[in-house]
Amino acid sequence: MGLSVREYARRRGVSHTAVRKAVQTGRIPQEPDGTIDPVKADTAWDAQTDPGRKAATAPKPSASPPITDPIAPPPAPQREFAPAVPASTGATFVQARTAHEVAKAQKARIQVDRLKEEVVDRARATALVFKLARQERDAWITWPARVAGQMAAEIGIDPHVMQTLLEAHVHAHLDELAAIEPNLR
After folding, report:
1. pLDDT given at position 77
2. How far apart are the C-alpha atoms of 133 and 127, rounded to whole Å?
3. Is residue 183 part of a domain?
4. Does residue 69 form part of some domain?
5. pLDDT digits (tens, 9 = 90+) for 148-173
6. Are residues 131 and 103 part of one domain?
7. Using CA atoms, how far apart are residues 51 and 12, in angstroms rounded to an integer?
8. Measuring CA to CA, how many Å separate 108 from each of 83, 118, 121, 168, 171?
9. pTM score, whole prediction
10. Is 68 within a domain?
11. Contact in structure between 152 and 162 (CB atoms under 8 Å)
12. How many degrees, rounded to 5, is the angle at CA 145 between CA 144 and CA 147?
């Protein structure tokens, strides 16, 4: 002979309505006389309860210890979270849940960094680097025309020849710099 629904609920640390719902949905077996065998019910309850909800339905500590059956098995050990594994590889629920929680934590950290303005938008950074490089290139291209006359006068050569030489060397150097690709990863 087993326990009544209310006795089993008290022993399990849940409400009697939770036990009734478990019986109605077939999560735990009920004896033909309407009672519940605690050993069978505990085994079925643990096997068919979503691991993510076990913490919410775990027995709450009370002033008086729950009534125990002398032949009832010891309580099952708490399951530990396994390392994150992609769900596509047939991961268990616990592994998938852990991977989900890790992803949520990473997303939250990125959002906080954005609020602190510690994260830079890659497209914006690339556009800024391009703009700065273009400004520097334009300044170098106009430099020979600005200084060729002064330099030619100092060394005593034709200003046009000096400007032509400076422009050739500046363009060669800018071509070398253009080959450098910024990696913003």
Report:
1. 45
2. 10
3. no
4. no
5. 999 999 999 999 999 999 999 999 99
6. no
7. 16
8. 20, 14, 17, 53, 48
9. 0.38
10. no
11. yes
12. 65
Q: What percentage of the chain's residues is helix, strand, coil (to nearest 5)?
A: 65, 0, 35
Residue with tokens 């989900």: 100
The domain boundary, picked from 68, 97, 119, lies at 119
Kind and range of the H or E run holding 109: helix 93-115
Cα 171 → chain centroid: 47
Q: Which two structure tokens, joined as six digits, stand for 106? A: 């990473």
d(CA 159, CA 147): 9
User: Whole domain around residue 169: which residue ranges?
Assistant: 122-178
In this prediction, the residues of the chain whose per-residue pLDDT falls under 70 are 1, 50-91, 184-185
Work out how many domains the chain is built from and give that number.
3
Q: What's the pLDDT at 52?
A: 64
The amino acid present at 10, given as its one-letter code, is R
CB-facing half-sphere around the CA of 161: CA atoms within 13 A = 6
* Dihedral angle sign, alpha carbons of residues 161, 167, 170, 176: negative
The contacts of residue 161 (CB under 8 Å, 6+ apart) are 152
Helix (H) or strand (E) holding 131: helix 122-155
- Assigned domain for 127 exists: yes
